[in-house]
Amino acid sequence: MPRWKALPEGLDPEVSEFTSQLRGLVDRSGLSIAAVSDRTGYSKTSWERYLNGRLLAPKGAIVALADVTGTHQGHLTTMWELAERAWSRSEMRHDMTMEAIRISQARSALGEFSQNPVGGSGRPGGSAGTGAPGGSGGRPAGATVDFGVMRGPGAPSVPQQRGPGGPPRPGGPSPAGPPPAGGRKRGRRRMTIFVAGVVGAALVTAAAVLLTDIGGDGGEQTVAESPSPSPSSSAPVLPAGVKCGGDACTGKDPEEMGCGGEFVETVASATVGTALIEVRYSKTCSAAWARITQAAVGDEVRITAGGETSGQTGEVETATNAYTPMVASPDSAGAKACATLASGETGCTPVR
Asked: Most buried of 52, 99, 118, 307 (most Cβ within 10 A)?
């Protein structure tokens, strides 16, 4: 039975090539997916999705895999960037297709709605309930009314009615009937808006006067400004997903605190018996921890930074590797990893 499933049909060629390269790295390392998950800090389910082309691995997972398999990080991240751009283009094409489908459905629905208008009279140019064709309020067809034209300073607005082909006739309602109710409503709305504007202006003026007079005898008011925090007392801003820094990381699990992945590097290593011990340091978290691989059950590894009394210990219990909790360390120079194997053999990494 083959180890890998066939990649999904329609997968972008660059994404397919990158996924095949990841599979080759895992194959050459001899690690199972469970072991890759254990050493990189990303779940087994996630790696199954990455290696089967159902999801593009994040950059942090790629950096961690390069570290585990001894691959050049720069080369692998270059290929990841190409795959990431191809993956984004595929998602964009999918979004545009879905948008086109939604637009087509909306146009179809609106087309059906326009063919069956609700409450329409069915007569173009007219409206339901009017007494004359093409008009309203008993006005003859073709007549227009001009409201609100001022003839001089202070002159009242006089509606002028223009009959078909005749000059405007000022003054009073036309013989055809009183002015339409719409004109009176518009006039009332204009007056209401004007009054509201006057009242609003008066309120703004009153507020400005009150604010100017606050302070008793006219002396200037001094507004106390809150002191700005000093740069030395403000906590550093951590990247998204990182949950601790410095002393707050001591005793914490590096993977749970988000200090692994792209934020960690191996700064020292040594071989003790058949086991490999490493000093792992995260500049982002200002913390170090030790990792032991190719080990046996009962082997122990310890990390110290700045003194033997400030260390943390991890023990291999069921797998062939383990790592310690973190210790705070402002830099990687003083961090040291030591191993005590079940066979009694001991050894440490060199201190830089």
From this structure: 52
